[in-house]
């Protein structure tokens, strides 16, 4: 499942090759359709012979699970680290046997520096601490070999089987949820800046904020914070779906949410929506300054909540409550903060003037 999701598996163990083969079969790292290739120092006397062994299976390496003994690992780390990592990274899985804690750490650092990839290391004993500390993300499994690895890990799991759920389900959804949250935070800040730019340009570059006092504070806190944070409850990918199709994990479409292209898309959307809000308010209420500010601000709040609704894929009761509560707070604030929301007062004054 991890292989189908695009995750390369390296097993760094202190066991013998025979024991490691049994473990890989039980863990489904090695299946019936896959071949085993063992690199023993008794059969390979020099580095040139080792490279020839690499080239002999290079054409079909994706179907192999590679096993290396301790002496071969030491020679690879010392003499041909780049060739070793580039070759082994193409295999279905790599198993390094009889590894010491220092060798585990060195292999982890080699993979990270040569392949320029993020690595996740998992361990359950004190001999895995150095490896976990050198990784980008370290997961400690509670076991009988002591709790030292738990204290040095970024994430702790009680059982090894929980790692599948942690990586595929929680990892995938957390990434997508955080991406959505960051996108909306960028949009929320940029559209406010753009509205201020249009406002200053139209009114001869006056140094006055378009939304003053509680309006500006409320926009960034009371009116929009709860809906934004509720995006963290949006489950993008169901658990049974990611287990059935682990290829979703390596889908590049999901991983493009925080790149430069996505940033410019957010900026363009903010410019378009900000232009519509401000020019629409100017067109409808050009003769009344207070109505201009109030309508543009109300449109902005509704727009932000609508954008969130379009992003949500699975609704949670707390998400619905957050949106409703934010809207209720906004309605009540129109009556409490009359100095900022004085549309009704202005209408009454105009009626009195017309009667007189």
From TrEMBL:
Its main location: membrane. One of its GO terms (biological process) is endocytosis. InterPro entries: ATPase_P-typ_TM_dom_sf, HAD-like_sf, HAD_sf, P_typ_ATPase, P_typ_ATPase_c. GO terms for cellular component: endosome; plasma membrane; trans-Golgi network. Residues 152-344 form the P-type ATPase C-terminal domain. Keywords: Magnesium, Membrane, Metal-binding, Transmembrane, Transmembrane helix. It is a multi-pass membrane protein. This is P-type ATPase C-terminal domain-containing protein.
